[in-house]
TrEMBL record:
Lineage of the organism: Bacteria, Bacillati, Actinomycetota, Actinomycetes, Micrococcales
Protein name, UniProt field: CCA tRNA nucleotidyltransferase
Entry annotated with the keyword Metal-binding: yes
Pfam families, sorted: HD, PolyA_pol, PolyA_pol_RNAbd
GO molecular function, one term: metal ion binding
Coiled-coil portions: 398-425
GO biological process: RNA repair; tRNA processing
Record keywords, A-Z: ATP-binding, Coiled coil, Magnesium, Metal-binding, Nucleotide-binding, Nucleotidyltransferase, RNA repair, RNA-binding, Transferase, tRNA processing
Span of domain HD/PDEase: 260-403
Amino acid sequence: MVSMAESLVRLSELAASPVVTKVATAFSAAGFELALVGGPVRDAMLGRPVTDLDFTTNASPDEILAVTKPIADAQWDIGRDFGTIGARVTVNGVTETVEITTYRADAYDGVTRKPVVAFGTNLEDDLHRRDFTVNAMAFRVPEKVLVDPYGGVEDLLAEILRTPSAPEVSFGDDPLRMLRAARFAAQLGFAVESATAAAMSDMADSIRIVSPERVQGELSKLLLTDKPRAGIELLVDTGIAEIVIPEIPALRLEIDEHHHHKDVYQHSLTVLEQAIDYEKARHPGEAPDLTLRLAAILHDIGKPATRRLEPGGAVSFYHHDMVGSKLAKKRLTALRYDNDTVKDVSRLIELHLRFFGYTDGAWTDSAVRRYVRDAGHLLERLHILTRADVTTRNRRKADRLGFAYDDLEARIADLREREEMESVRPDLDGNEIQRILGIKPGREVGEAYTWLLELRLDEGPLGAEEAERRLRQWWALRNASS
């Protein structure tokens, strides 16, 4: 819990930073109002890193360009239609990117989430149109005056998310704000105020007017937070997830009184949390891995469709890995994720059970090579996902699985060192196959290459001479049987 005094000190320190001072001085000299607004104000008061410098002003876009031109290294007006001008400003060797937006007083038509852009004349009206009170605070510069007409400070100190206007009005104007509520609940660790949460439930269906790209953007930002569970649970509890990504609430399988299995929904949330922990431990300081996190939360979405209640109280989910892979591909494509992300997430889900056969008996080197070959560039993510998928409370079982995966990773490292497994290829390439067999490019070359690759995976490197001998032998047998 932060204190008001500490928050104001941090905010004043941000306002006194060289780039903010330079921009504020320029606007003041030109006779315009200027204020830090939204995220940077909130984050500075919370003691969080401030990654963006967002300002609002009574200057028009043309006037913003004129004021910033003498002090900026570069300018861009890609957001000009919405009143936003970007600039890059350097002071004493420190460069910051700033975005400055004319006061807004937008109106929404209630059919789409696209506003009819209208510029406003005062700061208070601009703040009223923002999503949550903690984002509806501004700090006038260079005066260093906090402007908080909607109780943002109180909500910040109480760690509550609430809309500046009635939530029905706010979400009616822009339903995307309901997804933003989930993201901020996770990102800030705040609770959503009861009336705001109730409005999310009542208005969940209105999220349908939001474009898939916008939905995808907020879901991704939610998953990239340090602790996304609270946000996901909020989306599920309010019914919004049922519309935007129904595969997640579908994981809440009804438990039959005679057939018991773990709660798949809670298991998936735990796998996501554990994957994030492993990710941070293995790659400290690196950017969050969206592909891994999508695979973690979606890895069991094939279970509802494959659940079978077996005699004696057992429950099976045969082939849920393959079914889940297809479901993930369909959903992520509908949400307009890029092709690489769709492909990689679905592949990780397809492979996530592969390791568990390792504990049934020692894998041959051939099986280890195939595991590496099939994972390809996803191997490190597969390591993390597989380890995170162990959520049993049985300490002995968890240790056994952990030790087994330690062993597998050690064998992979050993084979890599001996065989350069990252670039596993046959001992002969296509040109050599054509020369040895006296054939032209075509299907037969591909068949020979595939056979040699399987041989390489089974037996390791053979050398060109032995590979040629085995190839000629295979070719002779193939032709004799045809």
